[in-house]
Amino acid sequence: MNHQHHYRVDVEWTGNLGSGTDGYRNYSRDHVIRIEGKPPLAGSSDPSFRGDAARHNPEDMLVTALSTCHMLSYLHMATVAGVVVTGYVDAAEGTMAMERDGGRFVEVVLRPTVTISAASDPAKAEAAHETAHHACFIANSVNFPVRCEARIVVSSD
Predict the structure, then answer these.
(1) Which of 93, 103, 104, 119 could pair with 98 in a Cys bridge, judged by C-beta atoms 3.0 to 4.6 Å apart?
(2) Beta bridge partners of 43
(3) pLDDT of residue 43
């Protein structure tokens, strides 16, 4: 059965410095992202594209979405496999290639370090990454490779 989920995001450009977009350097890329019931996010473009480095940019948020989706899928798959996860950190990186007037992501690499209990099976913990990758909604929605270079650490409990 096909179930659909809908997500609403309101985005407001706040970068009119008085003359709108009458010149490439005459406006800010600042914007506010609002999702009902959640704190607003201050957004901009990447500093390479005249954005504010102190604000979230779409490229960072795409890599974040892939990393957190994998993590949440992984925690579920580990639980199903009987693996007790006690810690999870990821140092994800995305690569974007510029082409003519635009660009596109060519790869994202996830590098999670997962700590599991001493009683858990490291092989099952490793295998849960593969099933998590196939279950991740965001990874299934992009047209570039998402690789996972996981490291499993067994806790001394």
Answers:
(1) 103
(2) 31, 56
(3) 94
